Amino acid sequence: MRKFYTALVNKRKPILIMFSIAFVISLLCSQLVGVNYDMTDYLPENTKSTVSIDIMGEEFDGGIPNARVMIKDVTIPEALEYKDKLKAIEGVTEVTWLDDTVDITVPLATLDADTVETYYINSAALFTVTINEDDQVDAVAEIREIVGDKGAVAGSAVSTADATTNTVSEILKVTAIAVAFVLIVLLLTTNSWLEPIIVLVGLGVAIILNNGSNLIFGEISFVTNAAGSILQLAVSLDYSVFLLHRFEECRRENTDEKSAMVDALCKSTSSILSSGLTTVIGFIALVLMQFRLGADLGIVLAKGVAISLITVFVLMPALILSTYKWIDKTRHKQILPPFKRLGKVVYRMAIPMVCIFAVLIVPSYLGSNANDYLYGSSEVLGANTQYGKDTAAIEEVFGKNDTYVLLVPKGDTATQTALSDELHTIPEITSIISYVDMAGAEIPSAYLDTETLALLEGENYSRMVLSVDAPYEGEETFTLVSKIRDIAEKYYPDDNYLAGEGVSTYDLKETITADTLLVNLISIGAVFVVIMLTTRSLSIPFILVLSIETAIWLNLTMPYFWDKPIFYLAYLVISSVQLGATVDYAILMTDRYRENRETMDKKTAIPQTVSDVFVSVMTSGSVLTIVGLLLYWMSSNQLLSQLGLFVGRGAIFSLTIVLFVLPGLLFIFDRFVMHKKTKGKVLS
Question: What CATH number does residue 132 fall under?
Fold first, then answer.
């Protein structure tokens, strides 16, 4: 490694030029990366609802209704005028209202009350609208302009449009504040006014390189786009700081700056690589999810950390050696104290803290698995947003209504009639728009107008549009979806296709819950193996993984005690993210303890180790905490907000356990921790 690092430090100018060119190219490429805000797009291709949507796209021009538009204080003729205006909007492929289900020329009192009240109550009209995926932002904006103060607009297309509009500006604000905070933290924890700038430059280059390289995917999810850069910043910060500190130590022993940098790189490689690899593996575990959003997030984060590692070992030495004279000129007195007293306090508290830790392990594990979950996107935008207010307004008048589409083979009207009749017996189904419901089995299709016929009859399949009195997700919805599928299967075995937001959410639930055990086991197992190989110990990875996993369980237990549902995706992702991002603190603590134990007894080594690593651990941990909490406070997207809360709170739990519990565990299990590799075999 020494020869490699010597060659690197002698090629400063070519390295700086190469990274500068890559930075500019990546910056341009990052502007071309698309962002996908629809979680259902990441369902496996063989999922029932996904297959249904694909077949519908082949058979019909219009897709699944994905928006509800309510207009108050309108007469029947006025409602029809609004319907025509909505249909004229570019990107709107279909608008369904009362006139598509019944003959509105007759008195409404003579018609089925449930059917009428699905679309028209107390002079309020509710339209079911289908909007093309590519036109959602502009179409929703135009719909809101048309309905004005008299209307309310909700549905998955509206949620996606609002998320698209709001998330970008929110993330820019979060990133700006996060960078400012990182700068302040670095100013407090370094001894030069210039060092924080050098660290941020290196991190900034790594982040832009990662963002630009996302172009190979074409598009990334909104979760990845929102959280990727700031998580990369928080997770990778300590690599650069650690190298800087090592360089300063080596300069005191070696007056030649190049030689000092080579020494620093050689001494820090093992610690930085082991920390980086555990983080990468924690993120890579997400790739194993059937729900492809996990792979999207996992690959981008893992790639980001890998690029950060390359930047630390290749770019940072060139930056430091090119600016070390300026670093020396801008040195200042150490702002933070050495924290030697803290080490002694931790030593005195070590055993009681381990006892508390032991008591919390089982209840925290049980509590973390007892939460109530949200699976879809119906609750992604909060109640205080425009979307949340509009949704509440519609539900106040028309209830929690959704629209499903059922595809069945075309032709056999008798079977379709029997199917429709049985579906009508389900209380939650308030109306059905289908060929047999509109015309009857005995009336030829030629008697229907072409527009209506195109809505209901494709080349191979007939379409049944079901209005259901059910929320977008929940046990009630999942039971209803299962019931409809069972009935359809009875009449059309293996040749029926149900789609809709509630249906996709049902399939989403089935998919991501199946991922939990696999993802957690793989991430834990892989991190365990990496630590085992780098430390040549069996006991150390057990201690470290148990410490961080308990921090994760404590983090995920909080919603259970607060009786708040959590997004299952956030629950699934944070398990890998927190493990990968914070096990570094435990590795640093353990490495420094083992190093100190070579010259000290364990009673002296514990307080000295805490004092040695406190600033480094708190620097990285505080940044991760603030970045997470900023995302929590500033994001209107509730999934991102909750993920941010988990990240911030999880970092606090991990820091607490590493700083106050792990020293006690190292003290108690010192005999195993200090066993070394002998004759190529692991003894501990």
Answer: 3.30.70
Of 224, 204, 223, nearest to 214 by C-alpha is 224
Alpha helices in 311-339 (DSSP H): 316-329
pLDDT digits (tens, 9 = 90+) for 190-200: 888 898 999 99
Helix, strand, coil proportions of the chain in percent (round to 5)?
A: 70, 10, 20
Which residues are within 8 A (CB) of 79 and not within 5 positions of it... i.e. 6 or more apart?
71, 97, 98, 120, 125
Is residue 618 within 8 Å of 582, Cβ to Cβ? no
Q: Is residue 181 part of a domain?
A: no
Distance CA 197, CA 195 (A): 5
Residue 241: give the domain boundaries.
1-32+190-335
Is the domain of 365 the same as that of 328?
no
pLDDT value, residue 682: 37
Domain count within the chain: 4
Bridge partners of residue 681, in order along the sequence: 678
Quick one: which of 464, 463, 465, 461 has its CA closest to 410? Answer: 461
In a domain, 600, yes or no: yes
Query: Quick one: 280 and 150 in the same domain?
Result: no
Q: Which of 133, 154, 175 is a domain's end point?
A: 154
Query: Do 250 and 314 fall within a single domain?
Result: yes
Is residue 174 in a domain?
no
- Token readout for 555 is 């983090």
Report which of residues 549 and 337 the model is more confident about: 549
One domain for residues 346 and 329: no
Please say which residue of 505, 528, 562 terminates a domain: 505
By DSSP bridging, strand 34-36 and strand 219-221 are parallel
Closest to 248 (Cα-Cα) out of 267, 262, 264 = 264
Task: Please check whether residue 48 lies inside any domain of the structure.
Answer: no
The SS3 assignment for 251 reads: helix
Regarding whether 325 and 344 lie in a shared domain, the answer is no
Question: For 122-143, what is each residue's pLDDT tens digit?
Answer: 999 999 999 988 889 999 999 9
- pLDDT tier at 269, thresholds 50, 70, 90: confident
With H, G, I as helix, E, B as strand and everything else as coil, classify residue 427.
coil
How many CA atoms lie within 13 Å of 672's alpha carbon, on the beta-carbon side? Answer: 14
The DSSP secondary structure of 554-600, one letter per residue, reads HHHHHHHHHT--EEHHHHHHHHHHHHHHHHHHHHHHHHHHHHHHTTS
Q: pLDDT at residue 478 above 90?
A: yes
pTM of this structure: 0.83
What is the rounded CA–CA span in Å between residue 330 and residue 323? Answer: 11
